[in-house]
Amino acid sequence: xxxxxxxxxxxxxxxxxxxxQATGLAAVATIVAxxxxxxxxxxxxxxxxxxxxxxxxxxVAQVPVGGGVVLDEPAIVVTQPADGTVxxxxxxxxxxxxxxxxxxxxxxxxxxxGSAFSIVDGSVIQGPAQEGLxxxxxxxxxxxxxxx
Length: 148
Ligand code: FES
Hints:
CATH topology of the domain at 56-147: Rieske Iron-sulfur Protein
Bound molecules: FE2/S2 (inorganic) cluster
CATH class of the domain at 56-147: Mainly Beta
Number of helices: 1
């Protein structure tokens, strides 16, 4: 007499869902970055989000005034709060690490739990995030935003 009806080990559904959400978010970030462009918006070859001085991020002309562009590689949001004033922040939400997805009406939005951040200084406009988006050092050379 054997008892072979041993139930399978529980499948980590939450983890799998989290991976799927993260994958979807990365795709959204890619799409958002592409939508903001008018020409060649192909990403740079290097992958480091910091410490990659000189790495080209985006053309200033591709960053809407009063808005921004979300890049997924590296994970950086480039904004232009006023004509000719370009800022950059990490695109990784300090709440639980999701990638922010878009910039709407002067706010950088995180799709996971609804946090919103200022395009001017990355500060929290709406939680649950308690901290703002950290600034990324950039430079503008010949109309191109690069990591400083
Ligand atoms: Fe961004 Fe929760 S991870 S609001």
